[in-house]
Design a protein that fits this description.
The chain is α+β, with helices and mostly antiparallel strands and 179 residues long. Helices cover 27% and strands 44% of the residues. It has helices at residues 3-17, 59-73, 116-119, 165-178, and strands at residues 29-36, 41-48, 51-55, 76-81, 86-92, 96-97, 100-101, 106-107, 110-111, 114-115, 120-134, 137-150, 158-162.
């Protein structure tokens, strides 16, 4: 087997053997796998970004205010289950979110003309779930995903990474509304 074939086999084996993404209460939990070959070391890292905010308020009050926060930001609800306390919000094709450039919230890489958040169409998905810890304490789990696609081509989506600012913005706005 050629060196390239061995390398591709090792990378695919690592990707397939890594544990599946899972909800967690630890912000920025990381899965790491390292493969050592005779002349190559392959490090595979997957970052599971779930931000958790603890609020001193009952679940029903947090839920009604959480919807208002997303409306302020301009995120459109695509899936809402009030009974379960879960919601998914999306935004596609806009260059701003809540009055700020997308580059404040996401890193999609850059080109010679600037950040891809300014030159590409960016699709955003915010998934949230509420968890009651007690009658007056609620956890808000927030996962943010974004993908950029070149507007001028039929290229594949590029995964963007969150700067963490959107999650912080949501938590701050929610805490402010609950005061």
């Amino acid at each position: 087997m050629s060196r390239l074939s061995t390398l591709l086999f090792a990378v695919s084996a690592v990707a397939c053997s890594a544990p599946a993404a899972r909800p967690n209460t630890d912000s920025r939990q990381t899965d790491r796998v390292t493969v050592v070959l005779p002349s190559t070391v392959i490090a595979y890292t997957r970052l599971n970004d779930v931000s958790t905010t603890t609020l001193a308020a009952p679940k029903a009050k947090v839920w009604s205010n959480l919807i208002a926060v997303h409306e302020e930001l301009g995120l459109t609800a695509s899936e809402i289950d009030a009974r379960a306390g879960t919601a998914v919000y999306i935004q596609e094709g806009k260059s701003t979110l809540g009055g700020k450039a997308l580059s404040a919230y996401f890193d999609c890489g850059s080109t010679v003309t600037g950040p891809r958040t300014a030159t590409h169409s960016v699709a955003i998905r915010v998934s949230e779930s509420l968890e009651s810890k007690s009658a007056d304490t609620t956890l808000v789990h927030t996962a943010v995903y974004a993908f950029a696609r070149n507007r001028g081509t039929s290229s594949d989506n590029l995964q963007c990474s969150s700067t963490g600012r959107l999650e912080e913005n949501i938590a701050h706005r929610l805490a402010t509304l609950l005061q």
